[in-house]
Write a structure and sequence with these properties.
This protein has 445 residues and is an alpha/beta fold. The protein folds into 3 domains: 222 residues; 78 residues; 124 residues, Four Helix Bundle (Hemerythrin (Met), subunit A), CATH 1.20.120. Helices cover 66% and strands 6% of the residues. It has 18 helices and 8 strands. The strands form 3 sheets. Strands 2-1-3-6 form a 4-stranded parallel beta sheet. Strands 4-5 form a two-stranded antiparallel sheet. A two-stranded antiparallel ribbon has the order 7-8. Strand 4 and strand 5 form a beta hairpin. Helix 14 packs antiparallel against helix 15. It holds the Pfam family PIN_8. It comes from Salinibacter ruber. InterPro entries: PIN_8. This is Nucleic acid-binding protein.
Length: 445
């Protein structure tokens, strides 16, 4: 019976050890992004595991794509958390030293002149108290800066998205071990994903909002799943998938809502489609098992840190990395919309005969517009195309030529076209942000 329905059974200890010894370990984007959320020693343990697995690692193309899309947002979020913590400490200090409020409450008509007179010396002689508050503040700041030094990213090259030693390490580890895009057209893949989601066939259907067409963002889990099966069938390899996902369309839970095993539907489809075995580990299970199964010296702290961040970066089925990217897309849409308004203002100047003023403004704003569009190209799935870059540069080129030659009619026309194009881009970014995560209310509150 076990042979007929293997997907309903957990692997035996012997089978599990065989997976550790022989299977290819495939990684989700959130596993790699966690490297920016743990300290240096834990990062070293992650890389120790990657290297111990040797050639038995694989990064699906879609997982790599998600990693690159979310990497900058994660770095910014971690950087901002340290700055925010220090700001809160400074705020705490000011509140502790702010005697004005309590002085007014205890003085005057509120409680009477006698008390006011008696407590004046308290407010006059408080140097010891101020020194204590300052000392506590300095101690807290020192501790935060120590964490900032130990954790990723910090005030080192690790915080710089352009000089990133973690990225360099990952590129080295996964060189030649990263998958290619699927051969099928993306529109056909979206249709297949939608058909599966409507039937609640895992994985990925928990990301589906039920609209007529599945978005690119809603396809991400499905694409990873297809690429895992494609790899297993092509290479004849069993697969262990390492992920931080915490959704019912990947995992089965026990009565206490603990994840206990991969969904049996996934195990069945993988076996039938590829002829290979499939299993999954949460990231902390990989770190934890590396000591016993791979014979590595992995620190207990690495397991603890990984476990702590596992639940923090998933909210209601929507990955926080997606929320971060949605937030970045939304802010970018607002910036581009502002440039559209400025284009309309330049159009008004040009229509009034002030070509020189429009030209002067364009000389300042043109490069800013191009830079914003380059950021949009990097962040947005829908806009990523050489034609988008060429389009915006062509808009600016034509406009610069029109203002330089003093052609009022051409300048007005090109500015109108630019404003319309930027508004369209802003709307595209907003739509993509809303598809990634339903966070519009928090954006506009």
């Amino acid at each position: 019976m076990r042979e007929q329905f293997p997907w309903f059974f957990d692997p035996t200890e012997e089978e599990l050890q065989r997976l550790w010894d022989e299977a290819t370990f495939c990684f989700d984007a959130n596993v790699l992004l966690n490297l920016y959320r743990v300290d240096r020693e834990t990062t070293q343990d992650y890389f120790k595991i990657f290297r111990a697995l040797g050639d038995r690692i694989f990064l699906p193309h879609e997982a790599a794509n998600q990693f690159f899309h979310n990497r900058r947002g994660v770095i910014r979020t971690e950087q901002n958390s340290f700055s925010k913590a220090k700001d809160e400490v400074e705020k705490w200090k000011e509140e502790r030293l702010g005697f004005g409020a309590i002085n007014s409450m205890l003085g005057g008509d509120s409680v009477g002149n006698i008390i006011e007179a008696e407590i004046e010396t308290v407010f006059e002689d408080r140097e010891d108290y101020e020194r204590e508050v300052e000392a506590v503040k300095n101690d807290l700041i020192d501790r935060i800066e120590d964490l900032e030094e130990r954790f990723t990213p910090t005030g080192t090259t690790r915080a710089n998205a352009e000089e990133d030693e973690i990225l360099e390490g990952l590129m080295d580890v996964f060189e030649g071990k990263t998958g290619s895009e699927l051969d099928e057209d993306i529109d056909e893949l979206k249709k297949e994903a939608q058909s599966r989601y409507e039937a609640e066939k895992p994985p990925g259907y928990e990301d589906y909002n039920g609209e007529d067409k599945v978005s690119r963002g809603e396809c991400e889990d499905f694409l990873i799943w297809k690429q895992l099966m494609d790899f297993a069938e092509r290479e004849g390899e069993d697969v262990v998938f390492i992920t931080g996902e915490e959704k019912y369309d990947w995992w089965e839970k026990d009565y206490e809502h603990n994840f206990v095993r991969p969904g049996h539907e996934l195990l069945r489809e993988f076996k039938r489609e590829t002829g290979q075995d499939f299993w999954m580990f949460a990231t902390e299970r990989l770190i934890e098992g590396a000591n016993e199964k791979l014979g590595l010296d992995v620190k207990d702290k690495s397991v603890e840190q990984t476990g702590k961040i596992a639940g923090r970066y998933t909210e209601g089925g929507v990955g926080k990395d997606e929320v971060e990217r949605a937030w970045e897309l939304w802010k970018l849409a607002e910036s581009i919309e502002e440039k559209a308004k400025e284009a309309v203002e330049m159009e008004t100047l040009a229509a009034g005969g002030a070509i020189g003023a429009a030209q002067a403004t364009l000389s300042i704003e043109g490069n800013k517009i191009i830079n914003l569009m380059m950021e949009a190209l990097e962040l947005s799935e829908e806009l990523r195309s050489p034609s988008t870059e060429n389009t915006i540069k062509e808009h600016i080129r034509k406009l610069s030529h029109a203002t330089a030659t003093g052609s009022e009619e051409a300048t007005v026309s090109y500015l109108e076209n630019l404003a319309t194009y930027l508004e369209t881009v802003a709307e595209t970014l907003r739509r993509e942000a809303k598809e990634l995560a339903d966070v519009e209310a928090s954006f506009v509150s």
